[in-house]
Write a structure and sequence with these properties.
heterodimer; A: alpha/beta; Rossmann fold; 8-stranded mixed sheet; 4-stranded antiparallel sheet; 22% strand; disordered N terminus; disordered C terminus; B: 309 residues; MetI-like fold; 13 helices; 0% strand; flat; binds adenosine-5'-triphosphate; binds magnesium ion
Chain lengths: 348, 309
């Protein structure tokens, strides 16, 4: 379905920091439910790659597969994850654990519950250094305070001693980011890092990602369902739908020449960023809903919601095909590339 | 914080007043102590004289007022049977009950917590499948049955431990196991449930994402969070045990408060029964207050507000 995808996506002559290749993941829930179907994503050095899609499309699962932190009832049934040339599937548990927090780290969606409520913020960060470095205790503290300053935490000494419940959501997320950056990983995975935060804090947090990318050359895999966030920071985007990659292209391509009707639909539902609108729930969205796991049958999974669907779409599932330079889309009838498409809904 | 403690103390006073009142009237429903104290061939006049000596011939209400006013001065009356202040008798037994309760708690926590953790971590595998049924069996055996079984095996058959009496660690082993096995199941099940719940929490995933080892995640993060509810239940168990374990103390002839309770109820020794119940209530209230304060130490979320969990 998506053969040779990765080669198209990364600039020639540069090994990607992360290459997810044809990854499939199943849930065991009485029967096997396929949650990810041959997902491929690559992240180059110092690149910020966005993964977008509606709730339940498998963004978090993709991120957790990379970290090796899938829920117990999920198994990888195909494909591989390569981090800096190392196939993570070939490593034993201990080797894999050693990479976590050191070469790759993750910031989670819910800063309110992602921190240990009984441990001071400072210690939760120094722990990374205890695990992965030989720094002395005072050196670990120094480093943590420096990290707190880097992520924009005012009064780091006070934050260091505070417990999570004494910090605001934004501060907790900054602590999470400090934790993720502590061992200077090559890859930072951020799973909806700003969803729970208010817009000003959101921009500040996104700015941190841009900052570390520029300063440290850190690669970022940024999971979000917000195209606005993508527009703000990402270099490339992978659009997911029902556990599949449906489109993948540089940001400007996606915004100006989306090929997949689903992507076009997502774009049409972006809030006017400057018009300070409410939350995403109030906004026009794509009609219909995402098929549940196990509900997906033959054909293109988006076909039931697609204005452009033809007979072929209902019978045969499209693979990823070139839709432009470094641009792939899984659609039999991609939107024409020479015009800005109208939103999927308004065509009737 | 001081206000919180003051509030709790006031609450405690009300509780204690309620408890002594109930027990005061309850014991007086059990019968006439004078009949038991009087010799076999005593006449009605003899019995009436005894009742007069014990102050039982006045109205119930005036007895109650007298009892309360004396109790407020720290005077809980004299035992009808032994020529000693009732509270003095109870307090002399109390250290033995404390010893037994501590022994039982050591057994219950020492086995219950590890068993709970193992069953949670190896969920559905052999540690859980063997430990949990064993613990359930231990719990469903009544003390008089398991106690006698232990005596038969370890005292009578193998002469490893004394079958009765108190003195030294060896004498404590069998009663502590008998009494502790009851709390053990409660604690093990609570620990298991609490661990399972905590293992699914997001902070555990965060810790794993840092590259922390399984041991580090368990002992550095999960353990403390998971033990919070276990602390509550341990407090309740401790408070119960300190009130005296009637069955176990009787089976092992353990000279604690529980044994004293049985003896004094049988002889209708009202002042001693009242003193026993009052002490048990005081201990209960104190242990619960202590657990709440301890909560504030263990859980920083409760520290600043000073609120009870
Ligand atoms: N532990 C689990 N057991 C069974 N199904 C699960 C489990 N976790 C996730 N799923 C299913 O897998 C699919 C993908 O989930 P995932 O969390 O990756 O979605 P997502 O794209 O991150 O969505 P969101 O935007 O809501 O975070 C969903 O349909 C979800 O219901
Ligand atoms: Mg998610």
């Amino acid at each position: 379905m998506s053969q040779g995808v990765t080669d198209d996506q990364v600039p020639a002559g540069q090994d990607p920091v992360l290459a997810v290749e044809d990854l499939s993941v199943c849930f065991e829930a009485g029967r096997q439910l396929k949650a990810l179907s041959q997902v491929s994503v690559t992240v180059g050095r110092a690149e910020i790659v966005g993964v977008v899609g509606e709730s339940g499309c498998g963004k978090s699962l993709t991120a957790l597969s990379v970290m090796g932190l899938l829920p117990h009832n999920a198994t990888v049934t195909g494909g591989r994850v390569v981090l800096e040339g190392v196939d993570l599937g070939s490593l034993n548990g201990r080797q894999r654990r050693d990479l976590r927090g050191r070469r790759m780290s993750m910031v989670f969606q819910e800063p309110m519950v992602a921190l240990n409520p009984l441990m001071r913020a400072g210690r939760q960060v120094t722990e990374v250094l205890s695990v992965h470095s030989l720094l002395s205790r005072p050196a670990r503290k120094e480093r943590t305070l420096a990290l707190f300053r880097e992520v924009g935490l005012a009064d780091p000494e006070a934050r260091y001693r505070q417990y999570p419940h004494q910090l605001s959501g934004g501060m907790r997320q900054r602590v999470m980011i400090a934790m993720a950056l502590a061992a200077e990983p090559s890859l930072l995975i951020a799973d909806e890092p700003t969803t729970a935060l208010d817009p000003t804090v959101q921009s500040q947090i996104l700015q941190i990602f841009l900052d570390i990318r520029d300063r440290l050359g850190t690669s970022v895999l940024l999971v979000t369902h917000d195209m606005g966030v993508i527009a703000e920071v990402a270099d490339r985007v992978t659009v997911m739908y029902a556990g599949r990659v449906v489109e993948s292209a540089p940001v400007s391509e996606i915004f100006h020449r989306p090929a997949h009707p689903y992507t076009a639909g997502l774009l049409a539902s972006i809030p006017a960023r400057n018009a300070d609108r409410g939350r995403a729930e109030d906004l026009p969205t794509i009609p219909g809903r995402v098929p549940a796991l196990g509900e997906i049958t033959a054909g293109c999974p988006f076909a039931p919601r697609c204005e452009r669907a033809q007979t072929r779409c209902l019978q045969e599932e499209p693979g990823l095909l070139a839709a432009g330079p470094a641009h792939l889309a899984a659609c039999w009838y991609p939107l024409e590339q020479d015009r800005l498409p109208a939103p999927a809904r308004s065509e009737t | 914080m001081a206000r919180y403690i003051a509030g709790r103390l006031l609450q405690a006073v009300v509780t204690l007043l309620g408890v002594v009142t109930i027990i005061f009237f309850l014991v007086r429903l059990s019968g006439d102590p004078a009949r038991l104290l009087a010799p076999q061939n005593a006449t009605a006049t003899d019995i009436a004289r005894i009742r007069h000596q014990l102050g039982l011939d006045t109205s119930l209400w005036s007895q109650y007022v007298h009892f309360l006013s004396q109790a407020l001065r720290g005077n809980f009356g004299y035992s009808y049977v032994q020529d000693q202040p009732a509270m003095h008798i109870v307090l002399s037994r109390f250290p033995n009950t404390v010893e037994l309760a501590v022994g039982a708690l050591v057994v219950a926590l020492g086995i219950g917590i590890p068993a709970g953790i193992l069953s949670a971590v190896y969920r559905g595998r052999w540690p859980e499948r063997t430990l949990m049924p064993l613990i359930l069996v231990g719990q469903s055996m009544p003390a008089f049955w398991s106690g006698i079984l232990l005596i038969l095996v370890f005292s009578v058959r193998f002469h490893l431990f004394p079958s009765s009496g108190q003195g030294g660690l060896r004498a404590l082993v069998l009663p502590a196991i008998t009494l502790g096995s009851l709390s053990l199941a409660t604690i093990a099940r609570m620990a298991r449930g609490s661990f399972l719940e905590q293992l699914d929490r997001d902070y555990v995933r965060t810790a794993r994402a840092k590259g922390a080892s399984g041991m580090r995640v368990m002992f550095g993060h999960v353990l403390r969070n998971a033990l919070l509810p276990v602390l509550t239940i341990t407090g309740l168990e401790a408070a119960n045990l300190l009130g005296g374990a009637v069955l176990t103390e009787v089976i092992f002839a353990w000279p604690g408060v529980g044994q004293l309770t049985v003896q004094s109820v049988n002889s209708r020794d009202f002042p001693v029964v009242q003193a026993v119940v009052l002490l048990a209530a005081i201990v209960y209230v104190a242990v619960n207050l202590l657990v709440d304060l301890l909560y504030g130490v263990v859980d920083p979320r409760l520290r600043l507000t000073g609120a009870a969990p």
